[in-house]
Design brief:
- One of its GO terms (cellular component) is membrane.
- It comes from Plectus sambesii.
- InterPro entries: Neuropeptide-GPCR.
- This is G-protein coupled receptors family 1 profile domain-containing protein.
- About 80% of the residues lie in helices and about 0% in strands.
- Helix 1 (about 1-25) runs parallel beside helix 5, helix 5 (about 75-105) runs antiparallel to helix 9 (about 175-205) and helix 9 (about 175-205) runs antiparallel to helix 10 (about 215-295).
- The chain contains ten helices and two strands; from the N terminus they run ααααββαααααα.
Length: about 300
């Protein structure tokens, strides 16, 4: 019981962590690029808090009967009720509400600078005619605008490229598809855990109008089956998408690094050849001047 409840809390908060990364990638792209080691600090913290909240199960759960039952913790069942309620809030209610808010903001609402970036992209991708006079007029207008807004453009240039790469995908249907995939998988994972949480809430608060659901073994078995199916979904998603994509990204990064190094080496060779040619030309000129002076 302790391992199951702890794993459930860690799973839900890891999904929330992924939603938080999506939110920061859209609304705070530069901060997101700098915090690439954030998971190394957050995941151990999530595991520690989940284990601390469910630690009471190590003393309260007993297996004397054919099923796992909880004994009164600290001498009363009221403490068990409050601890169960705290575990449900931590492992289900708080993550699902926060995940829904963050994903809704990413999918529905536009970031503050997205409209400005989209207008810049549209203006830069406009089709120009080939009229010479019109092109000259546009160039003169751009020069005047550059002179007026030069300071603003210099301040914008520090983060404009990274922001357009990190934020601009929200307006492009091609790059919105992974967001829909993430949202569908997160929603499925949370839905699979909902029936078991509802049955626990019914038993926890002793709701008499719905207590008949607890007496039906088929409903309980179906709820527990969906509860364990969430771990299967996590395993399939991690092995099929996350790990495979990371391997591809690492290979691509290695290829880009090698290509960059080879390009740097070729540039250095070209510079050395140019320097050698310049030096050779200088020596020839000096030899010519020396011969002319000797003839004179």
């Amino acid at each position: 019981m302790f391992i199951l409840h702890t794993a459930t809390g860690v799973s839900k908060w890891c999904w929330l962590f992924v939603s938080t990364l999506r939110f920061t990638a859209v609304y705070h792209p530069l901060w997101h690029l700098r915090q690439w080691r954030l998971g190394n600090r957050c995941v151990p913290l999530i595991f520690t808090i989940s284990a601390a909240i469910n630690a009471w199960l190590l003393w309260a759960v007993t297996t004397d009967s054919p099923f796992c039952t909880t004994m009164p913790f600290l001498g009363s069942y009221e403490a068990n009720r409050y601890l169960h309620a705290a575990e449900i809030v931590w492992s289900y209610l708080l993550p699902i509400c926060t995940t829904f808010i963050l994903d809704a903001r990413v999918m529905i609402m536009n970031p503050p600078r997205l409209m400005a970036i989209s207008t810049i992209q549209k203006s830069s991708s406009c089709k120009f005619d080939y009229n010479a006079e019109a092109n000259l007029a546009r160039k003169e207008k751009r020069k005047r605008q550059d002179g007026i807004w030069g300071i603003r453009k210099r301040n914008w240039s520090h983060g404009s490229e990274a922001s357009m790469k990190a934020i601009g995908f929200a307006s492009c249907p091609r790059y919105r598809t992974p967001l829909y995939h993430w949202l569908a998988i997160t929603t499925l994972n949370l839905i699979l855990n909902t029936p078991d949480v509802l049955l626990r809430l019914i038993a926890l608060f002793e709701i008499t109008s719905l207590s008949e659901l607890l007496s039906r073994p088929s409903i309980t078995i179906a709820a527990r089956s969906l509860y364990f199916a969430q771990f299967v979904v996590n395993a399939i998603y991690l092995t099929s998408f996350v790990f495979r994509r990371n391997v591809r990204l690492n290979r691509g990064r290695e290829m880009t690094v090698t290509s960059i190094k080879s390009a740097e080496i070729t540039m250095k060779l070209v510079e050395q050849m140019n320097d050698a040619n310049v030096r050779a030309g200088g020596k020839k000129r000096r030899s010519k001047t020396d011969t002319e002076t000797t003839t004179l």
